[in-house]
Amino acid sequence: MDNKSYWIALNMIDEIGSITYQKLITHFGSPENIFSASKKELMEVDGIREKTANSIKSFRLEEEIKDELNRIEKSGVSVITTNDNDYPSSLKTIYAPPPVLYIKGKIIENDAIAVAVVGSRSPTTYGKLVTEKISMELSERDITIISGMARGIDSIAHKSAIAGGGRTIAVLGCGLNVIYPPENFKLMDEIISHGAVISEFPMSERPDKMNFPQRNRIISGLSLGTLIIEAAEKSGSLITARHAVEQGREVFAVPGSINSLKSKGTNRLIKSGAKLVEGAEDIIDEFPPDVRSFLRPVKKNKTEEPDLAGDEKYIFSLIDSESRHIDTIIEHSNLPVGIVSGILVKLELKGLIRQTSGKIFMRS
User: How far apart are CA 229 and CA 282, in angstroms?
Assistant: First the structure.
């Protein structure tokens, strides 16, 4: 077996987390030496108890690593360790960095300029629209979007980064052979084509609930700052924010309604010192000058009024900078339901408006 195979094998042992892994490496110098050590020698390492030592000695090394290497090769995955030059430098500086990273896709040098975007798994329309707007604005400036490919804000952030022509990286709380949530199988392929999907867990690791708080330190660790959009008081996104603070990274938050339970966490973050964010520039302003110099300039689009007349022009005027529910549009138009519905379809086909969930319309 080559040296990297031993790194992968040690990472497959359940009782060995990042901190224990580092203690063992520091003591023995390499994973190969760890597997060669006696039980007595293993237990001489601070924090290594009999259960952990037994797990190392009973690990079916050749059989397990052969199966894992086959899974890695079959899935087109690459593996890097903290020993490798291409391991992200931003992750090396955090507490308990993942000793092994599985990568599908590519991490490039420019991904060092990244912002994490996380939030509610069941966002409001406001949360969805804000996530789309800010994630797209950041990606248009060549800033990589990091998130966790979870339902809700995470998925919207990834999709918006891709729509903005930028790059995105998803950090999973399971192995790369497991698609979670399962409905994101197409999104996972898109992320791989526009960045990478990564995990510290072995290929077939299931999405155990304990894995997600652990993976959050990687999301924040890969980023210059973390943006929280719609987080309840006990949201997992707040764990990512806490990791960001501990790692010396910036924390940003989008304010929400004082009446929304989904914004209790984000509003509290702002009270505690997180920067209030209304757009991408609020985030970029916190970047050091040398980082800002690498960003793509802001596009200056000429806004022209669409060539509309009659009822189409009137209905379009009712859909201003805010999103509008179809009932509100009908009420303000004083036109029959059928006519309003038909005009909305025409405006959508012309690309002037778009419909979000719940029959809510907004300008494109």
Answer: 14
Strands 78-81, 100-105: pairing kind: antiparallel
Cα separation, 101 vs 7, whole angstroms: 10
Three-state secondary structure of 157-210? HHHHHHHCCCCEEEECCCCCCCCCCHHHHHHHHHHHHCEEEEECCCCCCCCCCC
Confidence tier at 351 by pLDDT (50, 70, 90): confident
Of 217, 222, 224, give the one whose Cα is nearest residue 240.
217
| Predicted structure pTM score | 0.86
What local confidence, expressed as pLDDT, does residue 316 receive? 87
Question: DSSP letters of 281-334?
Answer: HHHHTTS-HHHHTTSPPPP-PPP------HHHHHHHHHS-SS-EEHHHHHHHHT
Structural domains of the chain sorted by starting position, each given as residue range(s) with its CATH number in brackets: 1-74 (1.10.150.20), 109-292 (3.40.50.450), 310-363 (1.10.10.10)
